[in-house]
Amino acid sequence: MSQEYNLPLLEAVCRRGVLCNVSVRYWRGCKKLRPEDLGLDPSHVSDRLIQLGHKRLVPKEALQRFALIESRAHSLVEAASFPFLGGIARFVPNPRLVDLTDKLDALRDEFREATLDFVAGYSGLRDEALDEWRDAARQMNLNGSAEQLLATIEQSFPPAGDITRRFAFETRLFQVAAPEGLRIDVAESIDQMEIADERSRIAQDASRRLQGDLDSFIRESVTTLRQETAKLAADVLATIDGSENGVHQRTLNRLTTFIDSFRSLNFAGDAQLEGTLERFRQQLLSRSAEDYRNDNGAMRSLTEGLSRLHDTAMAMVRNDGRDVLTRFGQMGSRRLEAVS
Fold first, then answer.
1. Distances, alpha carbon 71 to alpha carbons 86, 250, 327, in Å
2. 3-state DSSP call for residue 173?
3. At the N or C end, where does the chain have fewer CB atoms within 10 A?
4. Is-contact 100 79, C-beta < 8 A?
5. What does the buried/exposed string (b/e) look like for 126-142 if buried means 16 or more CB atoms within 10 Å of the residue's CB?
């Protein structure tokens, strides 16, 4: 009963993409200082007057390369996916998967090289940082607590032999599965029956929650693409209106790139908006920017087309993706009928 309730929709989701989670870990080079690290009595320190908190052990630029790689990795994933079930992972549609994993593999190689460089220079960086902390401690006028602070800072640096373990770039791909029940190991038959009933109830409750979560995920994904379409149309109209020279080729290229991206992200099968975008491409993106600048009638057609695209997308947003959700669930149903 519980599997029949949610599997058609789940089957459709699983066939259209995978879940992705990227983890980038590196030594952050920070230490949270406590009042006693400075020789102060914690009971006599007012948070209103003295703020200690996390302080950098090494200069920011020493780890900036890792921060940039981490930011690029998360940006790549976000651009190619949708948040899944409250953000436990990102759902990547199949057409985006190969390009995404190739780019993440390249970033992983870059991360590995950066790690090797950092580890090779770690001892020297540590010595330089401690020298800077000694100078800073002298300037702080800590009334005899400078050595205590320096000892705390020095102990906060990982040993050179352990620093490599602080760095990792991991990509995990997986799929969600419907709950089939809970494992039990009991001896008494009456207990088995009671626990089996409870297990069935829990599995059915989980299935209903999963169904609701999947419904919301698909509607939100569809709505997001429709909102982005409307926003792009409005942005391009504003750009054209604010330009003294009319439309630029990079603006038209931006529209073409978005339509290509939409097709690869449209895992839920929003045929209405995809068809609208394809007609827009055929009718209005076959001209060059120079053609538009030299033809007032053509320019008027472009701006009117952008206005219609914006209004159409906004009207679809108000539908909340319910039209697409109904057809999407039927995809999984037909698949299950074919293999049953």
1. 21, 25, 36
2. strand
3. C
4. no
5. beebbeebeeebeeeeb
Length of the chain in terms of residues written: 340
Cα distance between residue 8 and residue 207, in whole Å: 12
Residue type, 12: A
172: phi then psi, degrees, rounded to nearest 5 = -120, 130
Pairing of strands 89-93, 17-25: antiparallel
Strand partners, 32: 54
Q: Give the pLDDT confidence of 74-99 residue by residue, as tens digits.
A: 999 999 999 988 778 899 999 999 99
The H or E element that residue 115 is part of is helix 94-120
**pLDDT band (50, 70, 90) for residue 336:** very low
What does the DSSP 8-state code read for residue 75?
H
| DSSP one-letter code for 53 | E
> CB–CB of 29/163 below 8 Å?
no
| 294 dihedral zone (left: phi>0; alpha: psi -120 to 50; beta) | alpha
pTM, entire model: 0.77
pLDDT tens per residue across span 171-212: 999 887 665 554 444 444 555 555 556 656 655 665 666 677
Listed by start position, the domains of the chain span 20-174, 217-339
